[in-house]
# Entry
Amino acid sequence: MYAAFWRLLPGPLWVRIITAVVLVAVVLTVLVLWVFPFVNELFVPPEVTVGE
# Structure
């Protein structure tokens, strides 16, 4: 899968590397800013209290 993705990227090696780094940064930013907070709302941990 990664080889196919790599072949789809345009340009010489240095352009492919920059493009791949930018794409990874964009994906991580979207995950941190929108996806993870949304998923966090769905999975609320139970409130547990430890002994009295």
In short: The two ends are 54 Å apart (CA to CA). The longest helix spans residues 13-42. The chain has a mean pLDDT of 91.
